[in-house]
């Protein structure tokens, strides 16, 4: 049973189709209706306006973006880049003004889309948010939603139910605005076939390589050339400022391993939280629903109640007709097909009036009409399955793990204030703070701000440690939270100023670079002349390889650059000639003698291409939509909104 508004929004139906797809009858659709009251549900203003605690750096219509919100998003996107790129991640890329401007632009676009969703009334009802949360496996215990587990997991990740719900609501709203664009995209069969034929096309080629040695005598690099290059490119030969640091990490997660839990503590926790373990009492019920929305007028609800009352009178006399009447009159189609059966459920899974009635009934009792926001119910209690607790032995490991985490969080909280104070009070040394927390003062290697390893890649810690004051004073930074549950304090122990490497140190490197550049230029020029001669019909006695048929997939014969060159060559008239530089410095001239068209198109290839073309079209349409929506709102960016390096 869905919670409807007076003016149902078809867009919301589309947004939440994925949820409804897995729903089974009235129970699944109102599941967690009661759970919703345990969440800190917010109105439109709270999840549109965001955190107002920081200074506003930009405004989109009536909505502000705070510096704190921007900082959080910069950190979030930096973390995603770090995770996706792995060792290739360069922290300096996230410190540039360009990157920060890109993040701010994405926030502006997001706010504009949310305002559009608000205008179109694409709002996610509380029941949908609760149902969506209840279907997330991480929040379930024994296949059912657990409010305690939900709150514990969010707490461990530094989140609150309120913030998590806000994110879900915003996701639903954004989906409501953007899904028509993605759903409207379609592929033209003719276009797909043309693309597929081009992708499947092969070409017959042969080639000849011009080696580096063929132009070696023409390469000239003098000492004067090296000096001029050095003078014109001094920034490239300047080593950035570097430091070595010592640091201390106070990490809640690291405290877990050192915590022991007594058997008595395990038993006490098990006794105090028995409801969390095992299977609580379950009741199986059936119902007949006469629908009447909570916002319906009095006459409509009165009519529905009268119909439900009449049904109840019939069932008092003929209780055996319950299944028959459920099939013919119930307005909950999901359960009507099952003679009104809702299956088994525990407390906290149904809306309150319905639940109160079911858990006050005796088996086989029929009661009604029971009023809820969805209308009037005639309820039959089919059976009761008593609750049963899981044996302590089965849940001991989980209890020990939870108690360790709780103790670690408490220990961390107790240590954190003292740790921060000792770092501040003993500015010349980290040893007192480390000793008090039983931690080790660690040493870093030489590093610079653009390529600092963890934990110094955290923007706040990096800014504090590489500040002129920290470098000059060699005093402790404050204890900085680099992520929830982790504090780091550091101090500079050694410093190297930025240094221009002398010419004597880099001259050999410069000469090698200049020779390689000259060689590549001379080879390309020689290859271009050869290709021009071949195109004019003048065979130069070149030693061509045997013919090969190649496709667009790079391989031993052709790398990615070679594939691009071969398939870009105009082969309307053959032979056609092209060329490309190879990784070893040589230059390959390629002769295309035949185009091999595919005899038939692979269905899997067509499907793959269709998916790629569809995604490209959706991205283009989405970009246009975002630009259109954003242009419809007045955007104001503060002059000091972006802080970062100018590259």
Architecture overview:
With 647 residues, this protein is α+β, with helices and mostly antiparallel strands. The chain has four domains: 10-186 and 631-637, Triger factor/SurA peptide-binding fold, CATH 1.10.4030; 202-239 and 502-596, no CATH class; 279-385, Chitinase A, domain 3, CATH 3.10.50; 403-497, no CATH class. Helices cover 48% and strands 17% of the residues. It is built from 24 helices and 19 strands. A four-stranded antiparallel sheet has the order 16-5-18-17. A four-stranded antiparallel sheet has the order 12-7-14-13, sandwiched between helices. A hairpin with a 2-residue loop joins strand 1 (56-60) and strand 2 (63-66). Helix 6 crosses helix 9 (161-184) and helix 9 (161-184) packs across helix 24. The chain is extended. Residues 1-53 have low confidence and may be disordered.
Query: What is the third-level CATH name, the topology of the largest domain?
Result: Triger factor/SurA peptide-binding fold
Total beta-strand segments? 19
Instruction: Identify the CATH homologous superfamily of the largest domain.
Output: Porin chaperone SurA, peptide-binding domain
For the record, the CATH architecture of the largest domain stands as Orthogonal Bundle
What's the helical proportion of residues? 40-55%
């Amino acid at each position: 049973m869905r919670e409807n508004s007076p003016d149902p929004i078809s867009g919301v139906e589309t947004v939440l189709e994925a949820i409804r797809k897995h729903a089974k009858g009235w129970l699944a659709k109102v599941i967690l209706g009661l759970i919703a009251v345990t969440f800190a549900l917010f109105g439109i203003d709270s999840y549109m306006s965001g955190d107002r605690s920081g200074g506003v750096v930009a405004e989109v219509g009536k909505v502000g973006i705070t510096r704190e919100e921007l900082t959080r998003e910069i950190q979030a996107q930096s973390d995603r880049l770090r995770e996706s790129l792995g060792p290739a991640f360069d922290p300096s890329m996230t410190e540039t003004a360009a990157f920060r401007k890109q993040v701010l632009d994405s926030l502006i676009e997001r706010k504009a889309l949310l305002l559009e969703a608000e205008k179109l009334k694409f709002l996610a009802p509380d029941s949908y948010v609760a149902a969506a949360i209840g279907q997330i496996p991480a929040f379930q215990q024994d296949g059912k939603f657990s409010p305690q587990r939900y709150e514990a997991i969010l707490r461990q990740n530094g989140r609150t139910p309120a913030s998590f719900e806000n994110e879900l609501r915003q996701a639903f709203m954004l989906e409501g605005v953007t899904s028509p664009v993605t759903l409207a995209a379609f592929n033209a069969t003719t276009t797909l076939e043309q693309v597929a034929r081009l992708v499947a096309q092969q070409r017959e080629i042969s080639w000849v390589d011009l080696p580096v040695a063929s132009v070696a005598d023409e390469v000239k690099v003098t000492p004067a050339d090296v000096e001029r290059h050095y003078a014109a490119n001094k920034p490239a030969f300047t080593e950035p400022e570097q430091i070595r640091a010592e640091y201390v990490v106070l990490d809640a997660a690291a405290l877990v391993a050192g915590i022991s839990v007594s058997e008595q503590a395990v038993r006490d926790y098990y006794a105090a939280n028995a409801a969390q373990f095992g299977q609580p009492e379950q009741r199986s019920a059936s119902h007949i629903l006469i629908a009447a929305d909570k916002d319906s007028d009095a006459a409509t609800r009165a009519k529905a109640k009268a119909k439900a009352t009449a049904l109840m009178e019939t069932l008092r006399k003929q209780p055996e007709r319950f299944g028959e009447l459920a099939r013919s009159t119930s307005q909950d189609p999901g359960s009507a097909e099952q003679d009104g059966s809702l299956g088994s459920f525990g407390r906290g899974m149904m809306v309150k009036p319905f639940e109160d009635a079911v858990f006050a009934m005796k088996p086989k009792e029929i009661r009604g009409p029971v009023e809820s926001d969805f209308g009037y119910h005639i309820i039959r209690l089919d059976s009761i399955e008593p609750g049963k607790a899981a044996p302590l032995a089965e849940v001991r490991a989980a209890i020990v793990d939870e108690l360790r985490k709780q103790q670690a969080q408490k220990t961390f909280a107790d240590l954190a204030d003292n740790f921060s104070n000792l770092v501040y009070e003993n500015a010349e040394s980290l040893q007192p703070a480390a000793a008090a927390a039983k931690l080790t003062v660690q040493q870093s290697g030489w590093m610079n701000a653009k390529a600092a390893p963890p934990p110094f890649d955290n923007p706040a810690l990096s800014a504090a440690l590489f500040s002129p004051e920290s470098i000059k004073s060699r005093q402790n930074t404050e204890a900085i939270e680099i992520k929830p549950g982790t504090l780091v304090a550091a101090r500079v122990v050694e410093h190297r100023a930025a240094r221009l490497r002398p010419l004597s140190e880099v001259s050999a490197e410069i000469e090698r670079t200049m020779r390689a550049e000259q060689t590549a230029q001379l080879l390309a020029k020689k290859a271009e002349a050869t290709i021009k001669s071949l195109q004019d019909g003048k065979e130069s006695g070149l030693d061509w390889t045997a013919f090969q048929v190649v496709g667009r997939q790079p391989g031993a014969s052709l790398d990615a650059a070679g594939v691009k060159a071969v398939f870009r060559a105009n082969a309307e008239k053959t032979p056609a000639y092209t060329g490309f530089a190879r990784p070893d410095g040589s230059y390959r001239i390629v002769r295309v003698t035949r185009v091999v068209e595919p005899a038939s198109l692979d269905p899997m290839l067509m499907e793959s291409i269709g998916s790629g073309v569809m995604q490209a079209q959706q991205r283009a349409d989405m970009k246009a939509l975002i630009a259109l929506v954003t242009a419809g709102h007045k955007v104001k960016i503060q002059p000091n909104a972006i802080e970062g390096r100018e590259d």
